[in-house]
Amino acid sequence: MVPAPAPHGLPVRREHDLLGDRDVPADAYWGVHTLRATENFAITGTPISVYPLLVDALAAVKEAAARANEELGLLPSDKAAAIAGACREIRTGRLHDQFVVDVVQGGAGTSTNMNANEVVANRALELLGHAKGDYAHLHPNEDVNLGQSTNDVYPTAIRIAAIGAARELLKAMAVLQDAFAAKALEFREVVKMGRTQLQDAVPMTLGQEFSTYAVMLEEDRGRLAEAIELIHEINLGATAIGTGLNAAPGYAETARRELAGLTGLPLVTSANLIEATQDCGAFVQLSGVLKRIAVKLSKTCNDLRLLSSGPRAGLGEINLPRCRPVRASCRARSTR
Fold first, then answer.
1. How confident is residue 311, by pLDDT bands cut at 50, 70 and 90?
2. 49: alpha, beta or left? (left if phi > 0; alpha if psi -120 to 50)
3. How far apart are CA 84 and CA 70, in angstroms?
4. What is the residue-averaged pLDDT of the chain?
5. Which domains does the chain show, CATH number per domain?
């Protein structure tokens, strides 16, 4: 949702960027860069906050960066502590509504990165006892984004979010696999007709049919686990193009170590940050595996619907539990 301008008479604060001055609602944690982004990319009306795993991952990256910069002597301890405190609050679910940039945007995620920088900075300012927008004491770009670029922050955050989402999918697939395996055992002596192209072929057991679904899920879980492993390689510290320009010596490894500690993930820094910054191969592979899973699950659903078709004129070999009432319009059509 694009944030509306502050209604007349409501408090605002004045913020400045290289294009000039703008009024920002006084109670907003985002700032002028986010405001311009919402105006430039009013495309879908869906804010980035619909992806809480990504918001949390961005906060983790910002906290790791602050800790690394403090350790390297680049960021005062009071600023680092305030930034870390703000990031921890975000990772508990606070301030997610302040991530308002549209999910479809230009600039390879720059607007989302700046949205995160401003939210973290303004909450950190409050923790330091200052007002939102008082960037002389802690700045979104100079402090929160210190030693970073959208081109290493955003891909790293996406990887962390993708790992979290994929792990949840792995758990759900394991539950479904166990359910199919249990049904395969339950139906091991139920003999039915096997079919090819819907034509009767040779006998088989219903248990054999259900076992195929369990095996398919087991195989796909293996492929997904393999794809997740590739996502653990990050380019944090590469900055804009992979050369590490504006990042201190030792920053990449220090930030990786801090981020691995925060997330509990075995993250590794790419051996070639220039290559890693331009390469999307791991995302393509993960996408391909997810498509494979979706296609095979869709086929399984179609099989189950066909087996349960009827009750009078279909196959009717299994009964699926009712999940909702049949629509009246469907009943009317079925009786004609």
1. confident
2. alpha
3. 11
4. 94
5. 12-146 (1.10.275.10), 156-329 (1.20.200.10)
